Every structure is written in C-alpha cells, then in structure tokens.
Amino acid sequence: MSTSTRTTIRRSAALVAAAASIGLLTGCSVVHQQLGDAWAVTYEVTVDQPVGATLADVHVEGADGRGDAPREVDLGDRKTRKASDGGSRWTRELVVLAEDRASVRATPAAGATATCHILLDGGREIASDTSSAPGEPVRCSATTPTFD
Predict the structure, then answer these.
(1) Mode of pairing for the β-strands spanning 124-130 and 114-120
(2) Does residue 95 sit in the same domain as residue 120?
(3) Which pLDDT tens digit goes with each residue over 97-124?
C-alpha cells in the first residue's frame, strides 16, 4: 500500500471518529433535556403603575417544555395584569434544567420602577431585584439548584 493511500485512510478514519464524537455529544444533550431534573420556573415582574402598564424589551431564558432546547427569548413589549394582591404584574412560566441559568429582564415605562422575581415551582424564590431608578431596566438571574 502506498504512503498516500495510507494517509488518505488515516484522514478518513479521523474524520469518521470526529463525526461520531459530535453525534454522541449531541445525543447526550438531547437525552439530558428529556431526562434531566427540571424546574418549573416562574418569571415575575411587578411595577408601581396601574394594570396595563407596558414593560419594554422583555427577555427570558428557558424552554417552553420538557425536552425543548433552552434559549433566550426576546418577548418585546408586554402589558401587566392585575395581581391577586392588587398590584400590577407580568408573569411567564418556562422549564429550566437543574443547574442551568434562569434569567429575566424588562424595562418599565418612564417614571415607573420594576421589581423582578424568579420562582421555582411557583413558590421558592431564587432571585429578585428592583430597578435602580424609574424607567431603568430590571434584571434577575440565577443558577437553578440541584434537586434534593
């Protein structure tokens, strides 16, 4: 067998091995999204304005459902609704795997202050923050904990 034939065979074998490795890693990621521990994450933003206040530049991070790939989603502008405590609030629920990042950001209207919260399974708060000044954006971010 000539040297050039051996070189071609080695390169082909290396390419096949690399492609197989990528396939395995991609497959593991999909399996983890399907079977990994996941939290129902509620993103909540409250504002000190009446119901129907606009939140601009709303972004959230997570997956719409179990097995979906997590991503950051630009939701654009959103309107608040009346909360059970009489305040004005916007919420969104997504799925976030354990030990992955959960985040939300939003900008209230000029003159309004916003507060964000990240809740696990509808109750356990893992992050909160309040905008630094009226009309300034608010950001909450946290790594979700492992399951006990």
Answers:
(1) antiparallel
(2) yes
(3) 999 999 999 999 999 999 999 999 978 9
**Rounded CA gap, 22 and 13, in Å?**
14
pLDDT block averages, 10 residues each, the chain of length 148: 62 56 46 67 93 93 85 93 83 94 96 95 93 96 91
Tokens of residue 100, six digits: 């992955």
* Full domain range(s) for residue 22: 1-35
pTM assigned to the model: 0.74
What's the CATH code of the domain at 77?
2.60.40
Of 142, 46, 141, 36, nearest in space to 98 by CA:
36
The tokens describing 102, both together, are: 């959960």
